[in-house]
Amino acid sequence: MSGQLIGLDNLTVAYDRHPAVHHVSGSILAGSLTAIAGPNGAGKSTLLKAIMGELRPAEGRISHRLQRTDFGYLPQAAEINRRFPISVFEAVLLGAWRSSGAFGRVSAHETAKAREALSAVGLEGFEKRHIGSLSAGQFQRVLFARLLLQDAKLILLDEPFTAIDARTTKDLLDIVARWHGDGRTVIAVLHDFDQVRAYFPETLLIARTLIGWGPTGDVMSAANLLKARAMAERWDEDPRACEPAA
Ligand SMILES: Nc1ncnc2c1ncn2[C@@H]1O[C@H](COP(=O)(O)OP(=O)(O)OP(=O)(O)O)[C@@H](O)[C@H]1O
């Protein structure tokens, strides 16, 4: 692992002036594999979208030297429209736009790489299927194949294993490990603490404010998890409350 890839400096992100993420500072190191964990409504997806550049900071800043094409982003399943009339193979080839351009011709090399990516996610033979006809797990495999083709330096995954069966999750976690082994930087929003502990060396635990960020074993302590839960209970009592517990 080398130096900082992304710096967060006193980052606050808001919707209609209501902060969802408060005053987060820290570094994502190049080549790191980080889970973002926290209760529902903690600001995990908001933080990921801010890192992506999809949401602008209300306060503070995000610093990096990455190009737009260096980011690979997998949104939550609910945010993806599967009625788009394209085949599995076409969906995977969308990952090649970095080299082919949005309307460019796809080279034989990219076509071969798309086939390779489909094989890596266990979807050989699915090339012509319409994406709308796939199961949730099969579709998630397609999206991972697309990311494989994209060749991004930083890969951001928002709840990639929600509603995905154990076998598919294991296969996709192997791909995450492969990205990490290749030296890519991966950040994933996850709900399953066992997965976080088993596969992610670093964790950023958030409950609107940062609770901990560092080695997973230290951050996912009983005391920190209790603190996160207590903060979430406070929002349930008063949904507008957004300042951290003292
Ligand atoms: N587009 C939006 N407009 C207004 N408020 C939003 C918007 N998106 C999220 N929020 C609010 O911001 C807060 C953080 O939401 P976010 O989706 O980032 O949380 P999360 O930790 O990813 O939650 P979950 O685990 O439930 O997916 C929540 O109170 C949510 O209602």
UniProtKB/TrEMBL annotation:
ABC transporter domain: residues covered: 6-233
Keyword Transmembrane helix: no
SMART domains found in the cross-reference section: AAA
Keywords: ATP-binding, Ion transport, Nucleotide-binding, Transport, Zinc, Zinc transport
GO molecular function, one term: ATP hydrolysis activity
Transmembrane segments: none
Keyword Metal-binding appears in the UniProt entry: no
GO biological process: one example: zinc ion transport
One Pfam family matching this protein: ABC_tran
Family to which this protein belongs: Belongs to the ABC transporter superfamily.
Name the UniProt record assigns to this protein: ABC transporter ATP-binding protein
Organism per entry: Rhizobium sullae
